Amino acid sequence: MAPLILVLAIGGLMHAVSTFTRAATPETEIAGTGLAFGFLLLVAFFGGRFFKSIRLPRLTGYIAAGIVAGDQVLHLVTHEMVESLSLVNGVAVCLIALTAGGELNLKRVRPLLKTIAHTTIWAVVGTALVLGVVVFAMRDWLPFLRGRDLAQVAAICGLLGVTLSAQSPAVVTALLTETQSDGPLSRTILALVVIADLVVIVLFTLFSSVCQAALGQGADVGQVVRSVAWELLGSMGVGTAIGLVLWLYIRRVERGAALFVLLLCAVVAEVARRIHLDSLIVMLAAGMFVENVGKDVGSKLIHDIEGASLPVFAVFFALAGAHLRIDLLIASIVPAAIIVGSRGLGFFVGGRIGTALGNAEPVVRRYAWMGLVPQAGLAIALATLMERTFPSFGAQAGALVLGVIGCNEIVAPVFLRFALVRSGEAGKRGTREFATKSIPPPAPAQSAPSALPGGS
Fold first, then answer.
1. 376 assigned to some structural domain
2. Looking at the whole model, is its pTM more than 0.70?
């Protein structure tokens, strides 16, 4: 009862703040942003606890809390408040990437590379192609494709296919942490979604250039190559340098590692965007450097930041829920449902083929495709970029993409959690949960102290 009263009380404050901020001043905006962060953290935490009690992922509870608190339902967290918390999204993406990189030990991943390569080609690239064909087949239902010549329609469908195929390392990392999973399936899924996202980023850049050329907007091939090289290689280089800084800090300073990492992620999130680097690739490279070059430092880093990162994860996914446009989802429910089904089927078939060709273990063949289904940050970022780059159709196409993302945000984590539990890998590694106190193992039994004078 006490948590419910607390949530209701802060909800009343949120309603009052949203009323005051209609006449926005710097003071009310700062107050609203701070209160929105605290409110989302609180409702996400209790939402996650409730969903865990009914055997659903905490992550789904975080997203549901954001949907209920956002503009689409209770209007307690306004669109302006959500936008003002964009730094939290950036920090969360950096933390997630750092955690994912810290889990990618190359010695353990190397035996999985054949499986990952085949699955990336058949499931990720193959599904992007399938989705492009599906969108092309539905072109008469989509207003933004009407009145265009065949080449333009094909280019737009190809771009949409790539955008819709994007995965979510954020969801996978959060669920692996929540379920404490470790084993062949967990390692394969994590490495697979990371590599798949890199492939999607490259394909999106290439198809975006093809689409610009087809629409007469012009595309400089040399500029495209330089842009992709800078975004990938530049991000990896900067990430390696940051990994070296982290390694030196942990080796020589040791204390305060979690706070240092949070501050570093905030800096990377802001600076990378301004110099056209990908913060996800930057921190992924940093985590991989610390794990594979720093020897035992990597596991210590992940352990130190897990407790600090979970509150950021909670707010990140609550913000994803608050971003969700239910009205757009309802308006595009039929094409979105067809795309969601085609996307899931593409990953299922492609995943089965890829893992079979890669001689994967039976549990990986059965469940690895489920790790490709969730969507979150990258897909939203690509949809936003598409809207800015192609004003003639970007808004309508972006609405369709966001509708698909909304369906996958709500449903996919449930299936992925099911796969991790059924595989037997859940609970195979230790972790620390947000707002819980870890209990140290009991000390070994000792003999009773002496009762004689002078005994200790």
1. yes
2. yes
